[in-house]
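ugh finaly. both done.
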Amino acid sequence: MNKTKRHEIFNRWREQNPNPETELNYSSAFELLAAVLLSAQATDVGVNKATAKLFPAANTPQTIYALGVDGLKEYIKTIGLFNSKAENLIKTCKILIDQHNSEIPQTREALEALPGVGRKTANVVLNTAFRQVAMAVDTHIFRVANRTRIAPGKNVLEVEQRLLRLVPEEFLLDAHHWLILHGRYTCKARKPQCESCLIEDLCEYRQKTTDF
């Protein structure tokens, strides 16, 4: 795929959705970190249902830490892997309190040092909470980047690096959101909705669907 096509793809997404946002509900950097940590192998809808009850009761490192692992589990038990997630979030809260004055660090290295926080989670927080250029490649973005040929790669890190290099600079800050929304609602895994796709004429996917 050439530069002209990539620019047009992102330009169309921007025109359709000028200010894309995460679908996780949050009102602070800590709430976003907690929500993203809880969202691994879970849907945003499922996480939002749990945090709608959790955050009014506890939404700071201190108040969530005060719940303890068992107390936190009661709020997030509807989310997959809630046992390990509860333990990781409590440990993360303790580190934030002890080492970061309860503030969310703004570097990838410090974020990835938190229990349960991997590269993708760190990138989401850096990009969404702190508006740094970062590309959090999940299953949707990996699929869209490869299927459309915007930035094909054999693994998540390769796709991340290619997107950062190939996406036109003016779109980089919000590219993560446009890509994930496109993968979630249009370029679906089992049956991409090519007939209603905004970028169908620019996409280089060879097996486009023509009927539904």
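ok and the 2nd:
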Amino acid sequence: MVRLIITFLVLSHFPCFICHSQGQNLRVESSFQPPSITLSNNSVYKVIIHGSQENPQGSLPQVPGLIISNSPQTFRSASFRNGVPSVRLEISFQVKPKKMGKHTIPSWPVKIGSNTLQVPSSTIEVLAPNQQDKIRQNAEEKQKSELKEACFIEFTKPRSFLFEGETVSGSINLYIWDRLPVSRIERAPQKDGDAFSLTELGQPQEKRNQSKYNKSYTVFSWPIGLTAAIAGKHSITFNTSIRVRVKSRGNSPFASPFHNDPFFGFGREESLKVTSELQNITVKSLPVINRPKSFNGAIGSLSTRSTVDNDRVSLGDPVRFFFDIEGQGNFSAMPAPIFESNSDFKIGPPAFSFAGNELTKHQGKQRFEYILTPLNPGLLKIPVIHFSYFDPIQEKYFTLNSSEHPLRVDPGETWIDTTRGELEVEERSNSIPTADLFQTENEPGKWVHEIQKTILLNSSIFWAAQGIPFICVCGLIFYGRKRKRTGKDIFRQKQTSLKKQMKEAIEYKDSTLFYRATRERIRLEIGSFYKYGNPSSLSNNEISSLLKNGNNEESLISQIQEILHISDSHEFAENEEFSQSLDDQLKKINGLLKKIR
């Protein structure tokens, strides 16, 4: 009963308590707990602020020999001491040592409201690991090995080196141990490495009861097409996240979620990041020696074939010319062969289609369709196409030529205007001389001066015959607009989703989410603006190339490259800070994307 009364009194006077506490003298303390640890243990760096519950502002200095967490824990408390209110704010940082010796966090300023205070310096002593630490360290290494075998990613590639612009097929395999309590895969694997572009990942192929490391796994495989974009020595990894059901970590002797499989699906869920091993790939530049003039970027093992849909036409009638490229190669980035007009033919731009593996775009047949219009009558020959490609296995250039296709062009018939003669004959036949006509009592009737003509526009059959094609044409136009609008709606949905993520990141001050959404939005809008087939796979250099081809200003290109660099640096260098606020960055990005042409 006494406790309830005291609690009631404290709560009823709490507003006054806060007001009086603001007048209390501000004081800051700092310390390590414990102040002395071995190299394999962790400590806590505590900063205690007396006299205020306002959120402090400051920048914690970095110490070379210590790893200090960026996510501190806070604890607020208020109490009475001898009738005087006392307010306390405690901030705790996890600290992990990297080397032995004494390490000091120097004094640093912290701002509380309108006051600026100095946090006193604190020193921690890191000792050599003892025998117990070595045993624990060996246990942790064994645990890491077990965790690595519980869920991992393997990336298969055909060769240890590629040529610049070459596309190879591979697969990303996610192994999940059957005893691992996984609830779902949060996202498809993502690539780390700007020197390569990747085809879009679809639905994975699932295989069960796959044996490896004397364990049974379920394997999820994504077939991919990997294209080398930049010459040099580069590394590539893939990562994904899965959700695992676990109990409390405190109940596990190994502090591992894999030794705490909850019964009947009870327990909480944690996100586990899975990363593949780092693989180094050398990307070679294409040789300059013996490079044909007709080479336009095709790489692979290819063959060609050419056909026409007709070998005899009249002057002015179009002819369809097909040029097929078949085999293994970089079909997703393969340009159309050069086929120019001449004095005999007018050649339009080609239409192209691909038939083969749509996931990797590495093996199949690419067809280019040209429309040729003959300009002169006679026996003509369709121009020959010279197609060159580079074979990465033989490391040589090859040139293939299309077949010679003769085409007979008839001059056609001379057109004669017979409309005027037919009109004159019709007028003469319709004219009736009224002088030769007379009416008798045996032929009664109403006298008329001319024979009445049937008007075609008053015929229901005529309008029925015209209405059916009109309805069909309107239906085709509506269907085409609907399909076009569907593609635009998908783009707007993705764009709206990314803008929403950026605004939510600004609201929650999540810079990692903001810059990740920024990078995806730049890829989406620039790739869609220039009609790139797979905007999500664009690298920074490919984005620059698209902007340069669009005759954009150098300042615009450099500013977009700077934003992409900040996004990459923020994701791969978490401790790096950027002076510009997220609101200003959003306004700047919106302005730059509007200037793209």
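summary for the 2nd one i guess: The chain has four domains: 2-129, 134-284, 295-410, 480-594.
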